[in-house]
């Protein structure tokens, strides 16, 4: 297997993982938590936000855009594959930007509220977090799905 194909395959694989993760939040985790009380949502999201910071997540989260950028660099001059790969890279930049500028700061604000047993107004903490986090997660879900789809297009064009 060539390094070009390995980079493209790795980019596609990690992009699929990220699209699946964000999609799972959009269609199950957050709707499920929306049906609970503020204590459950805040406590659960605080726990998830701490536990998600692990090597497996970081490998996929950082690997998807890095491997896509590598695939772009290795496919310079390869028309259709390059075009699909550039489209995927642009979508990853949207996903990464939304995550770092909106979702992570919201996660940090939620954590800064302290343990649920010590939060005086759980409803207010939930209100500041939930709606905005869910809306922007939909944006990064769409961007991640677009990146994955574009990389599938690149694989098929290779």
Protein model, in words:
It is a single chain. With 158 residues, this protein is mainly α. It has one domain. The chain is 86% helix and 0% strand. It contains five helices and no strands. Helix 2 packs across helix 5 and helix 4 runs antiparallel to helix 5. It starts with a helix and ends with a helix.
Give the end-to-end Cα distance, rounded to a whole number of Å.
13 Å
Could you say how many structural domains there are in total? Answer: 1
Structural class: mainly alpha
How are helices and strands ordered from N to C? HHHHH
Strand residues, percent = under 5%
Low-pLDDT regions: none
Q: What's the story with the biggest beta sheet?
A: none
Taken from the alpha-carbon principal axes, the silhouette is elongated
Organism: Micromonospora thermarum
Keywords: Membrane, Transmembrane, Transmembrane helix
InterPro entries: Anthrone_oxy
Protein name: DUF1772 domain-containing protein
Q: Quick gist of this model?
A:
The chain is an all-alpha fold and 158 residues long. The protein is built from 5 helices and no strands. Helix 3 packs antiparallel against helix 4 and helix 4 (79-112) packs antiparallel against helix 5 (122-157).
List the helices and strands and how they pair.
Elements lengths: L2 H32 L3 H14 L3 H20 L4 H34 L9 H36 L1
Helix pairs in contact: 1-3, 1-5, 2-5, 3-4, 4-5
Output the keywords.
mainly alpha; about 160 residues; single chain; about 0% strand; elongated
């Amino acid at each position: 297997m060539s390094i070009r194909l390995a980079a493209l395959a790795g980019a596609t694989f990690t992009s699929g993982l990220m699209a699946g993760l964000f999609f799972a939040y959009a269609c199950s985790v957050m709707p499920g938590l929306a049906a609970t009380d503020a204590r459950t949502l805040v406590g659960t999201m605080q726990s998830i936000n701490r536990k998600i910071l692990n090597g497996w997540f970081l490998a996929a989260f950082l690997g998807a855009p890095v491997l896509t950028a590598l695939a772009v660099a290795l496919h310079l001059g390869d028309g259709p594959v390059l075009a699909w790969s550039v489209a995927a890279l642009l979508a990853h930049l949207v996903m990464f930007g939304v995550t770092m500028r909106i979702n992570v700061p919201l996660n940090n604000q939620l954590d800064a509220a302290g343990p649920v047993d010590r939060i005086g107004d759980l409803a207010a903490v939930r209100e500041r977090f939930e709606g905005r986090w869910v809306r922007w997660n939909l944006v990064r879900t769409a961007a991640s799905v677009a990146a994955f789809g574009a990389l599938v297009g690149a694989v098929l064009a290779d």
